[in-house]
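Record type: monomer structure entry
Structure origin: computed from sequence
Chain ID: A
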Amino acid sequence: MKKGNKEKRPAKQVIKELLSLFLVFFKIGLFSFGGGYAMLTLIEAEVVDKHKWISKSELGDIFAIAESTPGPIAVNTATFIGTKRLGVFGGIFATLGVVLPSFIIIVALSYILNLVKDNKWVGFLFKGIRVGVLVLIAKAVFSFFKDMKKTLFSFAIMAISFILVFVLKADVIYVILGTILVCSIAVAVKTYATNRRCHTVGTPEYYNERVGKPVEREEYVSEKAIDADIIKIMPPEAPAKTEDKGGNAE
């Protein structure tokens, strides 16, 4: 018996999607030189532009969550996206896909690094990789900065954090925790202020039509405007009483 309207997907389809998820993140892990931040550009290209599993704004939120939680940002991002797409198994397959290339390469290099560490061509290779890593990180920074919502508050947080870390040499952990605390307070204050707004009622007819329906953003005004008698809130009119043929009011 099926529960609700959800139909169970065939096992073959689920396995195919899991393998596709694994291969996508395996490719990201295989070609992302420079660590987690260098992966951000490739993750965006694969999961947003190519496969369209999530939107760019969602990916920005995922990056923020992955950065503010313990662990490497690329691994956290892969786990989050995999879980969002295919549940717990999706998170496991995506995480394995993104970490396996690094594991395999590091194990292989540990056996041959001593043999090639003095080779000048290997040195040139590593220098070239450093430049490529810098470009990938810079592209990720400018791409998400361009699309993120910019406010005076966000610029202030960014500037203060930069000064604390690079000028005053403050501990990054305390800066992150302080930022989370300040932003949480700001959101709470904004939510409280929003909840203290009243519904603008133009006419009784309009009011009656809107009962039980979601209220649009432009239908709100501040209580201050109401108290100053700038906006008048008109209550709905009582329905007119009708009389039957015997003269009795209904």
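Annotation 1: The beta strands are 198-199, 220-221.
Annotation 2: The chain has nine helices and two strands.
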